[in-house]
Design brief:
The chain has 669 residues and is an alpha/beta fold. It is built from 18 helices and 18 strands. The strands form four sheets. Strands 7-10-11-12-13-14-15-16 form an eight-stranded parallel β-barrel. The protein has a six-stranded mixed sheet with strand order 2-1-3-5-4-6. Strands 8-9 form a two-stranded antiparallel sheet. Strand 8 (161-162) and strand 9 (165-166) form a beta hairpin. The longest helix is centred in the C-terminal third of the chain and has 33 residues, at 626-658. 4-O-methyl-alpha-D-glucopyranuronic acid is lined by residues 143, 151-152, 192-193, 273, 277, 312, 356.
């Protein structure tokens, strides 16, 4: 019976041979045990892929010293120093394709590399390459709840949980295959907002199923993590406190962790959201974030566990009348004093921007602000603020900008990519996580095109030097089609889609203006008079938040020359102008346009660009899978309505505030 879900980029549909077939006829294993779980899985994968793509059924054999056959594929253990723990080397000579790795995980990635080349219809003859992943941790964070709902999920229900039970089925295995094939090595299965039943995931109510799931992941080189409720001692019948410095609380956690790691020995550790948006944390006891994180980290250190501690800590009960309190400052202000106090097996996980996954934000100044602390970048491919997987928004260009940003925290190797890879500070506990966009929809991501982000984040996390174009093309070839016309059309849709979304939504880095709570659709003042600290400060003369030294002083959290660059209106990058400055509508931009005219033009243009995307997509009818075409067409119609609504609300709002008409006399309400 056919599966109820698609196989995304692992469809293994027939491919042109390109001279690759011969390598799959004989496959030898040398130095690795064919019984090792990961090796068993990778051989199964080779078998399935070879049959599906090249109609060949490999003969698997152990390599022996007197081996005489010399054409095929050799999967080989290697101790050479240029291959890192999770790296691999691939070389081809005279018909023998050798994939070498130090560990099974590296071999798995090497084999998936070869299978990818076949799927891309690229020959591997004469190839030589050695690839070590750039980031030690490459992680998906799922915000799945135990009742099956997903916080900020736009693709159905959870495939990890339903009805307060843990699901362990074939889909988990397919998920593990998919993400391992693109290099993910860590997964958090439950929502960072840990409440109710999820608090009990660390009890014997769930141990058996959680352990089974962790074992499936282990077979694909993936460490499973859980999110913790910091107040678990109080909620699970322990002491009536969660004070991290209380010896009784500590003893409770020691015993708890002993139980947890005995039941789930391969657990990677925990992700913790504390003192944030109503979640409990050390602040309630007058303790620091470091007190909380270190207490847990010390206890799980001997089990090889790590604590990933989120820095999304801010005051969510702000007064909108207060112009001095700035939510953008909060992450830095709450964490910077304790730089150097966090223990080795703690990693601080920092959202890419200082606010919250907006379509355009500056880089969080905590990244690189911290210089003695393990850091991990958090991005979001669940399209909470970027179109709910109704609107197309290929996010890899944004992630490239984030990674390439120079923080100036060191004389060299100072980009975000350098920091999170461990190059800047020579540390190992670091990496990158994305809030994932999957659910139990047949196509995993609601909009089929959103799977480009699911694929792309992982590829980029493994190899940060890949370009957004390379990743998009790979994804299209592997998932949709290898036909040039389809590739060109889809590249033309995906690559500009982030800027198109930005054009018809909130302008020049100001963010928000979304329907409160839901975060889809326009509501310019939706958050303007609320407690969440997310304001645009528009009046009849101008708009934007003054975060310079004359305003909230947020700019001072960066290193120079970034401070000066953002502080002066003339040097501030224009796409972030309204994030840093309160600007009159008549201010002239580098394009020669006034700010107000830019707002009008970009919003009209955004809608036109959506119309063009739709035409391009329509041209693919009959050239790609009919279900995919239909699903995406339907979403494009909703995107168009959304874009028009944003255009009309934003333009009307600013026309009414400013009283300045559109130079081109277009319809504004
Ligand atoms: C999981 C934003 C989202 C919340 C999310 C939170 C977080 O506020 O709207 O749904 O909670 O970020 O990252 O913890």
């Amino acid at each position: 019976m056919a599966k109820k879900w698609t196989q995304l980029w692992l469809q293994y549909k027939p491919r042109k041979d390109c001279g690759n077939k011969g390598y799959f006829e004989n496959v030898w294993i040398c130095g690795f045990s064919a019984e090792h779980k990961i090796v068993v899985n990778l051989l199964k994968e080779v078998e399935k892929a070879a049959a599906g793509m090249l109609d060949v059924h490999p003969d698997f054999k152990e390599w022996s010293a007197d081996e005489t056959a010399h054409t095929g594929m050799l999967l080989c253990k290697s101790e050479v120093s240029h291959i890192g723990a999770e790296g691999y080397e691939i070389s081809e000579k005279a018909g023998l394709l050798t994939v070498s790795a130090r560990e099974e995980k590296g071999l798995l990635y090497g084999v998936f590399h070869v299978l990818r080349q076949v799927a891309l219809e690229q020959s591997v003859s004469d190839c030589y390459l050695c690839i070590n992943p750039d980031n030690p941790l490459r992680m998906y964070n799922h915000w799945d709840n135990m009742d099956g709902s997903i916080e900020r999920g736009y693709s159905g229900e959870s495939f990890f949980f339903a009805n307060n039970e843990v699901i362990v089925d074939e889909r988990i295995e397919d998920y593990a295959r998919l993400v391992a094939s693109v290099g993910i090595n860590a997964v958090v299965i439950n929502n960072v907002n840990v409440k109710d039943n999820a608090t009990w995931l660390i009890t014997d109510r769930y141990f058996k199923d959680v352990a089974k799931m962790a074992e499936i992941f282990e077979g694909y080189g993936i460490k499973m993590f859980l999110c913790l409720n910091f107040a678990a001692p109080m909620e699970l019948g322990g002491p009536d406190s969660a004070d991290p410095l209380d010896p009784e609380v500590r003893r409770w956690w020691e015993k708890k962790m002993e139980e947890v790691f005995e039941a789930i020995p391969n657990l990677g550790g925990f992700l913790v959201k504390a003192d944030s948006e109503g979640r409990p944390g050390p602040f309630s006891y007058g303790r620091t974030q470091a007190d909380g994180a270190n207490m847990l980290a010390d206890i799980i250190k001997d089990y090889g566990g790590i604590i990933i501690w989120r820095c999304f800590v801010y005051n969510c009960t702000q007064d909108w009348r207060d112009y001095k309190t700035d939510r953008a400052r909060a992450g830095y202000d709450n964490f910077i004093q304790m730089d150097g106090d966090y223990h080795d097996n703690v990693i601080l996980q920092i959202k890419n921007g200082p606010m919250d996954f907006q379509i355009r934000e500056p880089i969080s100044p905590l990244l690189g602000g911290l210089v003695k602390t393990n850091q991990m970048l958090e991005v979001q491919i669940a399209q909470e603020y970027t179109g709910h997987q109704i609107d197309v928004c290929y996010l890899i260009p944004m992630f490239k900008e984030i990674l390439d940003f120079r923080t100036y925290c060191a004389k060299e190797d100072d980009t975000v990519a350098d920091i999170i890879s461990g190059r800047t500070f020579g540390n190992k506990n670091c990496g990158v996580a994305a809030v994932c966009n999957t659910g139990n929809d047949v196509n995993w991501t609601g909009n089929d095109l959103a799977a480009a982000n699911f694929y792309g984040f992982a590829r980029l996390a493994f190899q940060t030097s890949l370009t957004a174009e390379e990743i998009a093309e790979e994804w299209i070839r592997m998932t949709i089609s290898c036909e040039q016309e389809v590739i060109d059309t889809l590249m033309g849709i995906l690559l500009p889609s982030r800027e198109i979304y930005e054009n018809y939504t909130s302008p020049l880095g100001i963010g928000w203006m979304v329907v409160p709570h839901e975060h889809y659709g326009c509501s310019v003042d939706g958050y303007e008079y609320s407690r969440w600290g997310t304001y645009h400060r528009a009046d009849h003369l101008g708009l934007g938040v003054d975060r310079t030294y004359n305003g909230t002083g947020f700019v001072g959290q960066y290193h120079e020359p970034n401070v000066s660059m953002y502080n002066a209106i003339g040097t501030c990058p224009e796409e972030l102008l309204l994030f840093f400055h309160h600007v009159p509508y008549t201010y002239q931009l580098k394009s020669g346009k006034s700010l107000i005219q830019h707002i009008y033009d970009s919003h009209f243009e955004g809608v036109e660009q959506v119309e063009e995307m739709i035409l391009a997509w329509e041209s693919l009818d009959g050239k790609i899978d009919a279900d995919v075409h239909r699903t995406v067409s339907e979403r494009f119609q909703r995107q168009l309505l959304n874009a028009k609504e944003w255009r009309d609300q934003v333009n009307s709002y600013f026309y009414r505030k400013s009283g300045i008409p559109d130079e081109k006399g277009r319809k504004i309400y």
